[in-house]
């Protein structure tokens, strides 16, 4: 569950920021301030401030119907497609896809992340080359509105009311899956379509929609 076990920090502008923490969800509270501090430093690196506190790389492709709320950063060669809704506090890396009708809020997307179709990603961090299948979402608030616990052994109280999912590098999430609040998925894991995921999933696993988890090796 620790940051160094989930992510290769060479693939995000948030490297220095994430290095301040042990567990990735500890970074959720400060994403907005991190982006506000980082954005102005990017002006001489190919980024333009296209509106207040919205920095977009000159090579990024932004559909005219997309909404970019402040603050946010959109990296090189990233495509933000029609009707994407970036509510704010979103750091989107290089070579990413933010697809049609996708909503992002308080997130870090590492380089080469794909959220291409009808995804909601909130209060979450998606590692390098992770992919959200069509219609898959992060659920970031408990139905009873209590603070979120990471269900591991032992359980960890996060002190957070909003916490979606932490996806390690190369995680594949199948179509129409739901990642419940406080989900942590290890690197190189595949999640079957229509699966409801909860708790900590070991790296290099396959999560079946029956709830069964098996190792790839």
Automatic annotation (TrEMBL):
Residues covered by the Mannose-1-phosphate guanyltransferase C-terminal domain: 71-198
Any one Pfam family match given in the protein's UniProt record, by short name: GMPPB_C
Gene3D superfamilies: Hexapeptide repeat proteins
One term of GO molecular function: acyltransferase activity
Record keywords: Acyltransferase, Transferase
Superkingdom of origin organism: Bacteria
InterPro entries for the chain: GlmU-like (IPR050065), GMPPB_C (IPR056729), Trimer_LpxA-like_sf (IPR011004)
Full protein name: NDP-sugar pyrophosphorylase family protein
Higher taxonomy: Bacteria, Bacillati, Bacillota, Erysipelotrichia, Erysipelotrichales
